Amino acid sequence: MTKTWSTPPQEALRVGPGFDLAALDASSHPGWEHGRSSAENKLEADGNRLSEVQERLYAHGRTGGSRAVLLVLQGMDTSGKGGIVRHVLGMVDPQGVQLRSFGVPTEKERSQHYLQRIREALPVGGRIGVFDRSHYEDVLVVRVNELVPREVWEPRYDEINAFEREVVDAGTVVVKVMLHVSPEEQKARLRERLERPDKYWKYNPNDVDERARWPAYREAYQAVLDRTSTEHAPWFVVPADSKWYARLAVGALVLDAVESLGLDWPPADFDVEAEKARLDAQPF
Amino acid sequence: MTKTWSTPPQEALRVGPGFDLAALDASSHPGWEHGRSSAENKLEADGNRLSEVQERLYAHGRTGGSRAVLLVLQGMDTSGKGGIVRHVLGMVDPQGVQLRSFGVPTEKERSQHYLQRIREALPVGGRIGVFDRSHYEDVLVVRVNELVPREVWEPRYDEINAFEREVVDAGTVVVKVMLHVSPEEQKARLRERLERPDKYWKYNPNDVDERARWPAYREAYQAVLDRTSTEHAPWFVVPADSKWYARLAVGALVLDAVESLGLDWPPADFDVEAEKARLDAQPF
Q1: Spatial distance between the Cα atoms of B139 and B227, rounded to a whole number of angstroms
Q2: Alpha-carbon distance B284 to B272, whole Å?
Q3: A61 with A262: CB under 8 angstroms?
Q4: Which of B92, B271, B266 has the alpha carbon at shortest distance from A202?
């Protein structure tokens, strides 16, 4: 039998008042008391279920429905965002996934409001949208590196909450995930990228510079979690030193989000019997 | 041991001079002398290989490379285009796939040259682009339903060849696939959509009207194959009454296309040893 959670991740990992990022062990497995192979079995089972409910969501979108899911992925370099996309979102029909990676803004993007490129990438009805990095970079890398003065980034937390309120009111379930990797594990993963020629392409010398600012990033993440984990769009902090745990947890969070929509197959908007007769009447 | 092709699909299914669509049995399995379960094993093996070479292609794109693959999928309703996306492209990392479905042009698209929306959707370097329907609709549905006069659609074959020449010259391997389903199998698949409430959403009454124009569509497809199966961007006609065969064949064609790029892992554009030293020197 497939083993399951002792506490579901939507409870065990949710950021509430008083959450302390520095106190969370990145190698822990909250809510999961079994090992890796049980987790892999559970993820496979969740993937099959996700594939089913995702098809219902897609059908809903194809028949004019506006409900959607948005997964926001944040985390330091090497925290495993790409692996989540590959191994979790890879379990569902590519037609149903709308993926967008946010890098350094282009010149055009810089000339616009920072939420403009985010708005343009929101999932359309019926899709699971995935943001690999997001508008949160505008209060993370931007704050840590002082790319704009405090009076510019400070109001953004409230703006982001208001923006996400709009998104949720329009029918999208927003799931925000921070993949939490320890500095030690990050160092080991960067080392691996430098040791394996098939991983060189993932390495960027700037990652080491950013790493030096770890304490400032932790502070900036803590501020994000304190100020933007709302009732309508909560944060989940996923310990990510064990990749298998992070994938299991994010898979469960996405599945829960799609299931929470409670969608059934859309009814026929045509006369089924009349269409059968029309089809049968054709000579071939 | 995994069974394999007697003739590889890139030979067995390629459209050359004198190809006659009406003479091709949609339930045949050219080049494959084994059954369904051997085909499923082979597709899984091909999928693992595809996942590997696709990652090299993606790495190439991430380091500034411009090579790409474009899979163009055409076929009548129910021919299985969506299933190809789900089961074949679903085997690779969603980050590496750039999928675009072309429906009835929007008002804005209608005001532009018919190739404009196609150009905008071409895969960027490092991606496998997939067109679910394409610019070929502008010489298929448009021709069959006389949406524009002959003097407008007639020159399009040459325009399309010239356009695809540009795409290929820019570094993209173009694989054009027509999924060939028989009228009998199509009728059975439409019937199933009318019998299963979980499939109603896939049914469109217009499909039955289009079906009545089958002979005209066959003629229009024959013209496409006669006039646009070029050396640089050949067509492959895949018998699609057996879904397992169609998926096997398209999987093999896509794998061959990515492998034909002959890409290796990109070299480091930084000093590996210096970076190791920099990383090791950090206190955490």
Answers
A1: 11
A2: 20
A3: no
A4: B266
CATH superfamily of A9-265: P-loop containing nucleotide triphosphate hydrolases (3.40.50.300)
Contacts of A85 in chain B (CB under 8 A): 93-95
Contact residues for B54 (Cβ-Cβ < 8 A; gap 6+):
B92, B93, B96, B128, B258
Report the alpha-carbon distance of residue A180 to residue A217 in Å, rounded: 12
Contacts of residue B168, Cβ cutoff 8 Å, sequence gap at least 6: B174, B232, B233
Q: Which helix (H) or strand (E) holds A70?
A: strand A68-75
ipTM associated with this complex = 0.93
How distant is the Cα of B5 from the closest Cα of chain A, in angstroms?
A: 27
- Banded model confidence at residue B73, pLDDT cuts 50, 70, 90: very high
B9-264: which CATH topology?
Answer: Rossmann fold (3.40.50)
Mean pLDDT of the B133-139 span? 98
pLDDT of residue B249: 98
Of B59, B99, B265, which has the smallest distance from its Cβ to A95's Cβ? B99
- For residue B63, list chain A residues with Cβ-Cβ distance below 8 A: 201
Nearest in space to A46 (alpha carbons), one of A273, A206, A259: A259
Per domain, the residue ranges of chain A are 9-265
B203/A268 CB distance under 8 A: yes
Which residues in chain A land under pLDDT 50? none
CA A135 to chain centre: 13
Give the type of residue at A128.
I
Give the pLDDT of residue A30: 98
CA–CA dist B93, B78 (Å, integer):
26
Could B94 and A86 be called an inter-chain contact, meaning their C-beta atoms sit closer than 8 Å?
yes
Written as six digits, the tokens of B120 are: 């905008």
> Coil, strand or helix: which one is A173?
strand
b/e code B9-45 from CB counts within 10 Å (16+ = b): bbebbebeeeeebeebebeebbbbeeeeebbeebbee
